[in-house]
Amino acid sequence: MIGGLAQHGHGREALNMFNHMLKEGVSPNHVALVSVLCACNHAGLVTEAKQYFSSMEESFGVEPKQEHYACMIDLLGRAGRLDEAMELVDNMPFEVTAPVWGCPPWCLKNS
User: Fold this and answer.
1) How does 80-108 read in b/e, with b if 16+ C-beta sit within 10 Å?
2) Which of 25, 68, 75, 109 is 20 to 30 Å from the Cα of 56, by its Cα?
3) CA–CA dist 53, 47 (Å, integer)
4) Cβ contacts of residue 104 below 8 Å, gap of 6+?
5) What is the pLDDT of residues 5-64, one digit of tens each?
6) Which residues span the domain enclosing 38?
7) pLDDT score, position 45
């Protein structure tokens, strides 16, 4: 549900669904958190995305994967925050691949 709402431009509704999920005691996995970051991306919610991204491991026990980084880099780029996007690319804990440079995570078939 969160991913579908995010992909169809209903970012705030997706975040509301995510918050409802948390209130019900359901812990998100890495896929749900990619969807949350994508929702923030579609809604232009840079501050919220940065908060979710920076707290993923501590709050939810999910280590950021390439899909999370790709979504954050896409979001920062769309927001015109290219220096921040490049800083994130430079500090990723793994090799930079094509999806990070051009394809947002929701277009990856195997994520």
Assistant:
1) ebeebbeebbeebeeeeeebbeeebbbee
2) 109
3) 10
4) 38, 41, 70, 71, 74
5) 988 889 999 999 999 999 999 999 999 999 999 999 989 999 999 999 999 999 999 999
6) 2-107
7) 94
The dihedral over CA atoms of 12, 56, 67, 34, expressed in degrees to the nearest 10, equals: -30
| Spatial separation of the C-alpha atoms in residues 85 and 93, rounded to whole Å | 15
- Could you give phi then psi for residue 84, rounded to 5 degrees? -65, -40
Which stretch of DSSP H or E encloses residue 17? Answer: helix 11-23
Q: How many domains does the chain have?
A: 1
Q: What is the dihedral of CA 33, 34, 39, 41, to 10 degrees?
A: 130
Q: How confident is the model at residue 98 (pLDDT cuts 50, 70, 90)?
A: low
